[in-house]
Specification:
Pfam families: ABM (PF03992). This protein is α+β, with helices and mostly antiparallel strands and about 120 residues long. It is built from four helices and five strands, in the order E-H-E-E-H-H-E-E-H. It has a single domain, classed as Alpha-Beta Plaits (2-Layer Sandwich), CATH 3.30.70. Strand 2 and strand 3 (about 50-55) form a beta hairpin. The termini are far apart.
Length: about 120
């Protein structure tokens, strides 16, 4: 598994807009490019940090080469409009060596089965 970490400063008052566009964009990138999904975090300094998982670096690089384009200009426009600052490249790219995370969706499915 391959992981890419991104960060964004978001204009004050546009946090909900950013999160909605990030969620929709992530859904589209997952469907179009084969991402395994992503998590969005809020850092103590106020930045949003996204941690995206990919099956491998090659799949991620293909998506990067395509600029992770998707055919929803309104989603892309809302995302870009909300961003005050962000680097062009990911903060980090990582290859997973050991993975002991419990998957959020898997845990939720198990909890539902116990009810």
């Amino acid at each position: 598994m391959f992981v890419a970490v991104y960060w964004w400063w978001v204009h004050p008052g546009k946090e909900d807009q950013f999160r909605a566009a990030w969620r929709r964009g992530t859904e589209l990138i997952t469907r179009i490019y084969g991402s395994l999904g992503s998590r969005l975090h809020r850092a103590a300094d106020g930045r949003f940090v996204g941690i995206a998982e990919w099956p491998d670096e090659e799949t991620w690089q293909h998506a990067m080469d395509a600029k992770m384009a998707y055919d929803e200009p309104e989603t892309r426009a809302a995302f870009v409009d909300a961003i005050a600052d962000a680097p062009h490249d990911p903060l980090l790219t990582l290859t997973v060596t050991d993975d002991l995370l419990l998957r959020t969706l898997d845990v939720a499915d198990e909890d539902l089965g116990r009810m």
